[in-house]
Amino acid sequence: RNSGAAFSLAANDTIVISVLAIVVAVAIVRTARTLTNVWWAIVLGGILGGALGNLIDRNFREPAPFRGHVVDFLALPNWPVFNVADMALVGSAILAVILSIKGVEMGAPESVDERDEATDPGAGEADMGGTRTDG
């Protein structure tokens, strides 16, 4: 059982960790509405799943809600004990770093028409009568 965050850091701040997980979950749900890149969707889904998985442990395990201990059950040689939620968080964080380094945007890139309209408001209008007249 782990009362803290990764590597048992902040073991006495379980309430702070729980509140932070709620804030992160709300921020991800709000961000997801405008998300159009599948890789960033995977990143945010992994972070959301990991945060909620550990938050559920903290709320339903001893000693009390928001003070519960996360159950870490995966043990590898020469590695700290961890759980599936930790894997989702760490894997998603690694993918987020890779996407950021590569310059991958969370939203859809602007189309050529949208860029043209931003510089010339009349550029995206269709010519409906053969010749265009302004005025």
- What percent of residues adopt helix (DSSP H or I)? 40-55%
* Major sheet details: none
Q: Which whole number gives the mean pLDDT?
A: 75
Overall geometry: globular
Query: What is the C-alpha radius of gyration, as a whole number of Å?
Result: 23 Å
What is the number of E strands? 0
Distance between the termini: 74 Å
Count of helical segments?
A: 4
| Low-confidence runs | none
Helix and strand composition category: mainly alpha
The percent range for strand residues is under 5%
Order of helices and strands: HHHH
Characterise this structure:
With 135 residues, the protein is an all-alpha fold. The protein has 4 helices and no strands. The chain has helices at residues 14-32, 38-60, 84-102, 112-119. The longest helix has 23 residues, at 38-60.
Question: Which terms would index this structure?
Answer:
single chain; 135 residues; mainly alpha; 4 helices; 0% strand
Question: In a nutshell, what does this entry contain?
Answer:
The protein has helices at 14-32, 38-60, 84-102, 112-119.
Topology:
Layout: H1 14-32, H2 38-60, H3 84-102, H4 112-119
Helix pairs in contact: 1-2, 2-3
